[in-house]
Write a structure and sequence with these properties.
Blueprint lengths: L4 H6 L18 H10 L5 E5 L5 H8 L3 E6 L2 H13 L6 E3 L12 E6 L8 H14 E11 L12 E3 L5 E3 L8 E2 L4 H8 L4 E6 L5 E5 L1
Parallel strand pairs: 1-2, 1-4, 2-3, 4-5
Antiparallel strand pairs: 5-10, 6-7, 7-8, 9-10
């Protein structure tokens, strides 16, 4: 099961990347740390679930060869125009986590920030295999998972699917899926032997570097 497209498509409606003020668009701090500690200068990096491209933009400015994938066509179009505006090389494609539209072994790094917990557990299990398919030998993956107590105040707007994933059916987040992973579930999903580091950010976000 793939996450509903309508919620993610709506996130970029009415936004014009050719006039938008990007001065406050900063990369996630974990992405900066990941680059400093794990990526070589010539790295080819996939931003999976790239959204509006804030992390991809930073990666490109650092000189990496960057590709982005997002389920939302509006996000892909937004990123393409954003990168064109700043004369940055760009490759953005619409796709899903369990069907990444790139060949085997092309990326020395993959980042997936606050995105992998927005699919069902079944899709997540299929997707981690797919992520590793496109990862080059010796490559590294950065993943973050939101705190498990996130959205506690709007649980009445969601229904729980059989696997424990929340599906929001009302409110501003209607159409979004969110799985509230516990630490042990993340380790089981990724496979503990593959995990290089597993840290907790100050806000409760789990930050995982793995292979």
């Amino acid at each position: 099961m793939i996450e509903p497209r309508n919620y993610w498509e709506s996130c970029f409606e009415g936004m014009d990347p050719e006039s938008h003020d990007f001065s406050k668009s900063k990369p996630a701090s974990v992405v900066v740390d990941f680059c400093d500690n794990y990526l070589k200068d010539e790295a080819v990096v996939l931003d999976l679930g790239c959204g509006g491209g804030r992390n991809a933009h930073y990666l490109a400015q650092r000189g990496y060869e960057v590709c982005g994938v997002d389920i939302a066509a509006t996000a892909v179009e937004f990123c393409q125009k954003r990168f064109a505006r700043f004369s940055l090389p760009r490759t953005f494609r619409q796709g899903t986590f369990d069907r990444i539209p790139f060949p085997d072994g092309v990326f020395s790094g993959v980042i997936c920030v606050a995105a992998f917990d927005h699919v069902t557990l079944e899709t997540a299990r299929t997707s981690i295999v797919e992520v590793r398919r496109v990862l080059a030998p010796g490559g590294v993956i950065l993943m973050t998972f939101d705190p498990p107590e996130k959205d506690e105040d709007i649980l009445d707007e969601a229904e729980m699917l059989p696997d424990g994933t929340l599906k929001f059916v009302r409110g501003e987040q209607a159409g979004m899926l969110f799985r509230r992973y516990q630490d042990g579930e993340i380790k089981s999903l990724l496979g503990e032997p593959h995990i290089i580091s597993f840290d907790h950010a100050g806000n409760g976000t789990r930050v995982v570097v793995c292979r």
